[in-house]
Amino acid sequence: MTCVGRPACDAAHGKAEPEHRRPESSVRPGFAREDWNARYAQKELVWSAQPNRLFAAEVGGLPPGRALDLACGEGRNAVWLAERGWEVTGVDFSDVALVKAAQLATKDFNLDPKTYAP
Questions:
Q1: Residue ranges covered by each domain of the chain
Q2: Assigned CATH topology for domain 1-15+31-41+64-118
Q3: Which pLDDT tens digit goes with each residue over 71-95?
Q4: pTM higher than 0.90 for the full model?
């Protein structure tokens, strides 16, 4: 599983590039990166470690391949796919969620998450 997130990657690689910021007026209330980070900052998972049941039913019978999980959050669907042999890239706006996704992959499923720096 590969986690992609500019702030998390920059921090992991010691880069201090300033992040481009949108004008505050263009960000809907509750949808700024800080809001998502606050949502995922609690100790417990916001969702369960199990995949979304509709997602699992839809892709469960497919042969392993490559997957891109946009807005992966804490990684439950990405981890589920990786556990079944898929090569998965998880992307999320929240670097806090990506850290939790990597922890879920290593702790609960013994997968090897990698961080990609664009």
A1: 1-15+31-41+64-118
A2: Rossmann fold (3.40.50)
A3: 999 999 999 999 999 999 999 989 9
A4: no
Alpha-carbon distances, residue 26 vs 19, 21, 22, 56 (angstroms):
16, 10, 7, 35
pLDDT score recorded for residue 33: 81
- Residue 111 DSSP SS3: coil
Residue 114 has a CB neighbour count (10 Å cut-off) of 12
Whole-number Å distance between alpha carbons of 99 and 73: 10
Cα(12)–Cα(83) distance, rounded to whole angstroms? 25
Sheet holding 66-70, edge to edge: 66-70, 87-91, 2-4, 114-115
Alpha-carbon dihedral of residues 79, 83, 84, 85, nearest 10 degrees? 100
Distance CA 34, CA 65 (A): 33
